[in-house]
Design brief:
Elements (H helix, E strand, L loop, with lengths): L7 E6 L2 E5 L5 E4 L14 H23 L6 E10 L7 E12 L4 H15 L1 H7 L3 E10 L1
Parallel strand pairs: 5-6
Antiparallel strand pairs: 1-2, 2-3, 4-5
Helix pairs in contact: 1-2, 1-3
Length: 142
């Protein structure tokens, strides 16, 4: 049997919840004012995209270190399309990896992203079960 994650998510009243992570950190989830909330926390579907970017980002950051690559800055833009019918879900997601630096090794950075996307990132694999993924690389030479 594999590892299990146990998350406790407690109602704070109105539309707000507090979710406790296995690491002991907490985050607040809330609906937008349009949906009866106060907008004081993360939206659940958006959190999924943060989870996707964070999972792959950790892989890529580890590989940048392992491959001794020179990268001044790095960010991931995640743009998702939501279906119109309920239950609404992401049916398409574009994941853009932006690398900034004066000495970027584009081939090795591409390899790092490929390893994350194809081999290491479990969240990417979960998304693949319900959405069409498009991966883009953008190099910004400083």
């Amino acid at each position: 049997m594999g590892t299990t994650n146990h998350i406790t998510t407690k109602w704070l009243g109105k539309m707000a919840f507090e979710s406790t992570n296995p690491s002991g950190h907490q985050l607040r989830i809330d609906a937008s004012p349009d949906d009866g909330g106060e907008g004081s926390g993360f939206r659940p579907k958006a959190l999924m995209l943060s989870g996707l970017a964070g999972c792959s980002g950790l892989d890529v950051a580890m590989l940048i270190k392992k491959m001794k690559l020179e990268v001044d800055d790095f960010q991931i833009e995640t743009i998702a399309n939501l279906t119109e019918e309920h239950p609404k879900y992401y049916d398409g997601v574009v994941v853009e990896y932006h690398f900034y630096g004066s000495n970027l090794n584009e081939a090795k950075l591409q390899r790092a992203v490929d390893l994350s996307v194809e081999k290491y990132c479990g969240v990417m694999e979960m998304f693949r079960r319900f959405a069409k993924l498009e991966i883009k690389m953008v190099f910004h030479t400083l």
